[in-house]
Amino acid sequence: xxxxxxEAHYDIIKEKxxxxxxxxxxxxxxxxxxxxxxxxWDSLGTLYGREDLIPLWVADxxxxxxxxxxxxxxxxxxxxxxxxxxxxxxxxxxxIGWMARRHNFKVEREWITYTPGVVPALSYCxxxxxxxxxxxxxxxxxxxxxxxxxxxxxxxxxRNPLKLEDGKYHMDYNDxxxxxxxxxxxxxxxxxxxPGGRVWKEEELKELADICIRNNILIVSDEIHFDIxxxxxxxxxxxxxxxEIRDNCVVLTAPSKTFNIAGLQVxxxxxxxxxxxxxxxxxxxxxxxxxxxxxxxxxxxxAYNESEEWLDELLEYLECNRDFFIDYINKRIPKLKAMKPxxxxxxxxxxxxxxxxxxxxxxxxxxKCQLALNDGGMFGEEGKGFMRFNIGCPRSLLKEALERIxxxxxxx
Length: 412
Ligand SMILES: Cc1ncc(COP(=O)(O)O)c(C=O)c1O
Prior knowledge:
Blueprint: H1 2-14, H2 39-42, H3 44-48, E1 54-55, H4 67-79, H5 89-103, E2 112-115, H6 118-129, E3 135-138, H7 145-152, E4 156-159, E5 163-165, E6 168-170, H8 173-179, E7 184-190, H9 202-214, E8 218-222, H10 243-246, E9 249-253, H11 256-259, E10 267-270, H12 274-286, H13 294-306, H14 308-332, E11 337-338, E12 346-350, H15 358-368, E13 371-372, E14 374-375, E15 386-390, H16 395-410
Parallel strand pairs: 1-13, 3-4, 3-7, 7-8, 8-9
Antiparallel strand pairs: 2-10, 5-6, 9-10, 11-12, 12-15, 14-15
Helix pairs in contact: 4-13, 5-13, 6-7, 6-12, 14-16
The structure holds pyridoxal-5'-phosphate (PLP).
The site of pyridoxal-5'-phosphate has 13 residues, from helix 6.
């Protein structure tokens, strides 16, 4: 089924324009994001030294938001009074409904705490649940702010590297157990995994959680990519596995990746354990950040209540992008090895076959391919020689990027 779909997409790509199939939403048109203070497009000169690059780096997508979201924002803007607000019943119900419908996780209203972002939430968790000098485990390579939130809060990073086997990452429980001591207090989990795209299986999560429970280690589970999961895979919210696991974890969620609304800064921290919740709220109250941005709240409600159809089409589009990308690399750029993601719109590509140093690799992608990517070394030692691609863009852009690599490699 997927293959024939992919074939069809190849044909359409050959014909250049792809609008006109049975999809309701248009993910093919290229919307100009320049001159909108857009991090992805407007900071290329500053970050990469040239402007003429296709940006496939930071994790947002080049797609307009679902119509119900834009309409809700317009409606709210027309009211034209933008004073203080609080998370409304509609807000909580939208989160509860989404978690139940899409993730089979029954969340009580009291468990939810609005927070302006998942990275700020990670930092609050570290301060709320650990002391300076405590050890926090991360499974590397991993989303780079995991390192800085630990370090910048004066805690110690403990690396539990993932094992790369059969072309994908696996958790290393033996190494984890060896690394635990009396100062180890927290593990930050990336689920689904950025940059490797793993959607962890229930058994994998359970084994991890059991080790943590036995050793009094709290798991903070960053599930920001939880809705972007491809067919054949299922995201398991860590807290949904058992009551015992739920009470030993903090689940961080957001509509930001799912609906491409990261600039609206809205995320939710879900904590069922009353004692942990009290500590978390005491910590965020120190900074007085518990009232949502008006537009973030409106966008969340419209996203979770009215934009599911948009998401389902987006997922199909992204899955075809993923398959197109992997197929292209396998068939036409065999010096690169792309890890097929089970979720996320990020693809982790092993570039060690090019035999370049990390600096040469960066230079190759920027100056020979004219692409802005995330350098794998950002994600930790294990990422050296890898590059992270963001495929959340119109397929024609992705195709252009791949053609540029193919051409440049021929000249190496
Ligand atoms: C795993 C992960 N966590 C958190 C974030 C960012 O979260 P926020 O923008 O809500 O701080 C990202 C963005 O790429 C991410 O990949």
